């Protein structure tokens, strides 16, 4: 008799088109992870939370893994060698605004929205030193609609978030002509990150090794571009365009 698959509990967020808990398609990151663990010794159980809670649950070992942070966003988690995608953080403004991001000097006298527990490597020290210039709000399913509303009502000059997710949400709400990208910062790899909780350590290391092996095979077989095609997006393996 075949052994019963072991349950691998994963905390996720609402972050389309990467992770779409309420969508017809589940998001290209989750599609990738499901393919990695198909016909495996693991049965994945994915639950969506707010970003801050998802990080905390993973840190405490209440779940085994988290989708899908960049390393600076949760540096105390355990990271496999293989990433599950990339993210590009960009500034967004009202379509009529002439402002563009051009380094930290361009942020002077601007009020910028940002999600709590977001890490932007080249801006982290600046944000830490100038918190009065940033509007911090929790990341959940209403983060982008709330940010759009603040921009449209001139309560923020700009907000910063991942390019793919923001453009996707603008398209869904038919706001592409009203809010635009105003420049981006560096891209970062995103991961299926694992819990550092010592009681979970043996199980987590085995699952992480399995993930790395299968994810490597998936990449070598050319599956990533095909998964991305479902969402009308170029493969995250390619060099990201300037706008991304």
Structure, explained:
By secondary structure, the protein is α/β, with parallel strands linked by helices. The protein folds into two domains: 6-84 and 191-229, D-Maltodextrin-Binding Protein, domain 2; 87-187, D-Maltodextrin-Binding Protein, domain 2, CATH 3.40.190. It contains seven helices and nine strands; from the N terminus they run βαβαβββαβαβαββαα. The strands form two sheets. Strands 6-5-7-4-8 form a five-stranded mixed beta sheet, with helices on one face. β5 (112-115), α3 and β6 form a beta-alpha-beta unit. α1 crosses α6 (201-220). The longest helix has 20 residues, at 201-220. It starts with 5 loop residues before the first strand and ends in a 15-residue tail after the last helix. Mean pLDDT is 92; it is low at 239-244.
Summarize the structure.
This protein is an alpha/beta fold and 244 residues long. It has seven helices and nine strands; from the N terminus they run βαβαβββαβαβαββαα.
SSE blueprint:
Blueprint: E1 6-12, H1 28-36, E2 42-48, H2 51-60, E3 65-67, E4 85-94, E5 112-115, H3 124-129, E6 134-137, H4 143-152, E7 158-162, H5 163-172, E8 179-190, E9 192-194, H6 201-220, H7 223-229
Helix pairs in contact: 1-6
């Amino acid at each position: 008799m075949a052994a019963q698959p072991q349950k691998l509990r994963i905390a996720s967020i609402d972050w389309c088109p990467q992770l779409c808990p309420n969508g017809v398609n589940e998001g290209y990151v989750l599609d990738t992870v499901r393919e990695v663990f198909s016909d495996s010794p693991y049965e994945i159980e994915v639950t969506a939370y707010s970003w801050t809670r998802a990080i905390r649950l993973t840190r405490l070992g209440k779940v085994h893994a988290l989708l899908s942070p960049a390393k600076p966003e949760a540096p105390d988690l355990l990271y496999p060698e293989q990433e599950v995608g990339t993210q590009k953080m960009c500034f967004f403004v009202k379509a009529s605004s002439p402002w563009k991001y051009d380094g930290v000097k361009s942020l002077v006298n601007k009020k910028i929205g940002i999600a709590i527990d977001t890490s932007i490597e080249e801006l982290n020290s600046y944000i830490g030193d100038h918190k009065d210039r940033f509007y911090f709000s929790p990341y959940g399913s209403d983060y982008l609609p709330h940010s759009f509303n603040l921009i449209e009502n001139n309560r923020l000059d700009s907000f910063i978030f991942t390019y793919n997710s923001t453009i996707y949400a603008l398209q869904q709400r038919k706001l592409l002509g009203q809010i635009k990208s105003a420049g981006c910062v560096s891209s970062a790899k995103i991961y299926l990150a694992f819990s550092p909780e010592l009681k979970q350590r043996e199980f987590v290391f085995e699952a992480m090794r399995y993930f790395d092996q299968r994810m490597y095979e998936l990449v070598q077989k050319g599956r990533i571009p095909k998964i991305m095609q479902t969402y009308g997006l170029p493969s995250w393996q390619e060099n990201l365009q300037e706008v991304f």
